[in-house]
Amino acid sequence: MTCRTCRYNDIGVCRLNPPAASLSGKALWPRVGGGDWCSKHAPAKDRFTLSSIAETFCDRFDVTVDQLIGATRTHEVAHLRQDFMLEAHEAGFTISSIGRFLHRDHTTVLYGIDRAKLRRDGGIK
To answer: Is residue 35 over pLDDT 80?
Structure first.
């Protein structure tokens, strides 16, 4: 199945329907910019980004985005960071994308989400 609405209609593919892999196992994409989505399958423009969620979160809890992303390990900031991880994950972001945004490993994000859930449900303080 190929994408007939792709802006690269002559090859009929987009990120949803990638081209077949080459002999090396990697897909052969045309040499274009990063927007290899056709109009039918493009991500919604009004979707939240991690930065917009972080800005709203930080405004709500009176911390800066730099503190959230930074290396601060105080209880207050660490717990807020874990709460942000949970909020971002519940908004539909992947563990790895949250980790990349916060400059942390995906296992750290998994741990943070688990701890935030326990605090929310009253399991720990």
So the answer is: no
